[in-house]
Specification:
Blueprint: H1 2-23, E1 25-31, H2 39-53, E2 57-63, H3 67-79, E3 86-90, H4 94-99, E4 103-104, H5 113-120, H6 124-127, E5 131-132, E6 135-136, E7 139-151, H7 152-157, H8 169-179, E8 181-182, E9 188-190, H9 201-211, H10 229-243, H11 258-263, E10 269-273, H12 277-283, E11 288-291, E12 301-311, H13 316-329, H14 332-342, H15 355-363, H16 369-373, E13 377-378, H17 386-401, H18 407-422
Parallel strand pairs: 1-2, 1-3, 12-13
Antiparallel strand pairs: 3-12, 4-12, 5-6, 7-10, 7-11, 7-12, 8-9
Signal peptide: 1-23
Main location: periplasm
Keywords: Signal, Transport
Length: 426
């Protein structure tokens, strides 16, 4: 009899476990791995922690490659009616995702005063690319700006103040000339300045164009200004760094190898994402500094990085689970730790008020440079059919940097191609 009772109890327990397992909602979460560092371990840890705190949900990270690969995979899954519940995609993909009817606005899920406050707590600059038609389509998470890193050891060697980065374009040229180092045969051993022009050339170029007072696209995503005189002047300056001043590598500079070039002493100054900050801090064999980008008629950098999106064709329970995960992921303490662990910018002012980030910034002041640059930041280039429009600009930038076209002709051609693509959206 006791055996029968025991067996019944075991079966009942198993049934409860099975029922609980069946009741658990799986939330697939596409995540792009585009910058070096132990990002996957961090995200896996977040998912495990969230799942433990929310036993009715199971967030499953899917590492889908670069940002470009991830959005292609997400949209392919959407068209096959098997989308992820959520994904971190470039904030600039917002128009494309809306046009594909692939995502739902976060406004659909916000019900309480606390949730409404959460929506307003992000840095305004990080909401520029995610808010369209008075709706919030993407929540900031993996966000960045372009910043300038400089090798203090190289500055000392060149007779420059190691604690002072170039503040404007004129100083960038004059310091770059002193920092560029050649051997007896005239071969360059160290470049003064290096700005990558593969991967995300349009993004790095927005540093130059913004500093020259130009805005590349309207907020509706229907019109670009690639052939504006200020834009052409900005591109001419980038070309001149190499062809006229001889302080920048010729041709196309690789995005992926630029941080390594800096850490190996091949370039004294680089422009790249704040997302490389922790990597460089851990691996640079010399003391380095981080500064806002130099100004010309103004300071400026585009914002960058990824937003959290929720997919429309995901079942309602998965969408609700994704919304809970988005709130959990962007809490001030977690946003602060994410910034410390990766170098990305914490997405809310409240994160910088946490003890963890205050202590980290006191020990490592470069951690707040990107935050301090946000008042000068502009929206990253984003339009309808964004990938094709940015490709037109990227092709033009590379044509000018390689000498295949003049800056004026390159931007004229890019404008013509963008006009052709965007005509249907006007």
């Amino acid at each position: 009899m006791k055996k029968l009772v025991s067996l019944a109890s075991t079966l009942a327990a198993s049934l409860c476990v099975s029922t609980a397992a069946l009741a658990q909602t799986e939330v697939s979460f596409y995540f792009p791995v585009a910058v070096g560092g132990p990002v996957t371990k961090i995200i896996d840890g977040y998912a495990a922690e969230f799942n433990k705190e929310n036993p009715d949900l199971k967030v499953v990270p899917v590492y889908a490659g670069s940002y470009q690969e991830t959005v292609v995979k997400a949209l392919t899954a959407h068209k096959a009616n098997k989308p992820p519940a959520a994904a971190i995609l470039l904030s600039t993909d917002t128009f494309t995702l809306i046009d594909e009817d692939a995502i739902v606005p976060f406004d659909n899920f916000v019900k309480t005063d606390e949730e409404r406050k959460w929506m307003k707590d992000f840095f305004p600059a990080f909401l520029l690319n995610g808010q369209i038609d008075n709706k919030t389509w993407g929540i900031p998470f993996q966000r960045s700006t372009v910043v300038m890193y400089w090798n203090k050891q190289a500055f000392k060697e060149a007779g420059l103040d190691p604690n002072t980065a170039p503040q404007n374009w004129e100083q960038l040229v004059s310091m770059g000339q002193k920092l560029t180092k050649r051997d007896a045969s005239g071969n360059v051993e160290r470049w003064g300045i290096q700005v990558p022009s593969s991967g995300f050339p349009y993004w790095l170029f927005q540093g130059f164009s913004t500093q020259n007072g130009a805005i590349l696209a309207n907020s509706e995503g229907t019109q670009v200004a690639f052939d504006d005189l200020k834009v052409i002047e900005a591109l001419q300056f980038w070309v001149d760094l190499s062809q006229k001043y001889k302080i920048h590598p010729p041709g196309v500079v690789q995005w992926g190898t630029t941080p390594a070039d800096f850490m190996q002493g091949k370039s004294a100054i680089i422009w790249t994402t704040t997302g490389n900050l922790t990597n460089i801090r851990k691996n640079a064999p010399f003391e380095f500094g981080v500064a806002m980008l130099p100004e010309n008629v103004r300071r400026g950098s585009p914002t960058g990085g990824g937003n959290f999106f929720i997919f429309k064709k995901a079942p309602e329970a998965e969408q609700q689970g994704a919304f809970r995960f988005a709130k959990w992921l962007t809490q001030p303490e977690r946003a602060a730790q994410w910034s410390i662990d990766t170098g990305y910018v914490a997405v809310s002012p409240a994160a910088y008020e946490t003890q963890a980030l205050k202590s980290y910034a006191a020990d490592f002041p470069p951690a707040v440079v990107a935050r301090d640059q946000l008042p000068f930041a502009v929206a990253e280039l984003s339009t309808h059919d964004n990938q094709r429009v940015t490709k037109a600009l990227n092709d033009g930038l590379q044509a000018a940097l390689t000498g295949a076209k003049t800056p004026q002709q390159a931007m004229k051609d890019a404008q013509a191609e963008a006009n052709r693509i965007l005509r249907a959206y006007r």
